Amino acid sequence: MKRTATGMAVLLMGTAPALAGGIERAPQSLTALFEEGNYAELSFGGVDPTVEGTDVAGFATGDVAQGYGFVGLSYKHQFNENLSAAFILEQPFGADLLYPLAPEGSPVLGGTRVQIDSTTYTALARYKFQNNFSVHGGIRASTAEGQVNLNGLGYSTTAGYDLSIDNELGVGYVIGAAYEMPEIAGRISLTYNSPIEHDFTMTESGPIILAATGGLTDTVTGDYKVKTPRSWNLEGQTGIAADTLLFGSIRWVKWSEFKVENFVFPIPVGAGIPLVELEDTTTYTIGVGRKFNENWSGSVSFLYEASEGDTVSPLAPTNGRKAVTLAAIYTRDNIKVTTGINYTKLGGADLGVGETGNKTQVATTDDGDAWGVGVRVGYSF
Q1: pLDDT at 22
Q2: Which of 246, 248, 243 is nearest to 331 (CA)?
Q3: CA-to-CA distance for 246 and 364, rounded, in angstroms?
């Protein structure tokens, strides 16, 4: 049961993550670290979201959310009864949004685009004490790059602004603790993920640069800092009946500290106009798994993330989400294959630009959705 239970709980990582709070695509779970013995895992999949709305001029925005794929890799090594270590590669943050140009799209936001790609590399160790308590911690390195284009009447003086962010490495840390109850396949763990500060080289261009430099140039390049947010993960699981497992998680992310500051932004008017402004999020997941026979298990899990704030950025045009994930797990000898399908209902939002606390509404998105599929192949040895 314990081995199968871990396979079920891996669904907490999001077999098919989709447009979470801020620009999150995966919850940075450390589930692989708790596998028995030596363990290797490969995961991959894709997500197809749909987000549509109407601008303040009454024009449809078209579907602004682009589909994406993801891949992950984990390796865990058991040195002895107490000490183990793991290496995890994943893509937790990302965005791919494009507002179509008129007439198919919106004259207020048409041409606005954001692309963000990131990869994290986590190396950590775990030490298990004799009383079923354990501690874990390590280093997380992250590479990220992005492109932002602001266009349309809604961006007023910043329309035509282009930002390119070079791929750079930042480093943070992970630390946590866990308590296990092997007799009931029980475990509870708490993990803190530190913020990661990146020193990016950014190139900005457009009419606003020309105005800001007094007509000297329409392109500037400089080194600026961007911090990805800190977060807490509380994850748990327990057997509730023979061959039946209950699992869940709570994840809090301090998105309010994710800021992009460069030559243009924040524009120094009053409190300042940020390029993007995000609210902190808390995400809840609960699920149940069942072992049907020696080879087959299944699980269903539900996710809830409340909407935060009244007006959100056009660069993150959803607010809150609800999701359900179904998974089938096939285990044979040392191989475990998890296949899952996810449906996410994305909350609609009022989109605004301008000063913090005094944004001008430029569009509204309807409730959207996303379908995702994912596969994980694990091997124990």
Answers
A1: 63
A2: 243
A3: 38
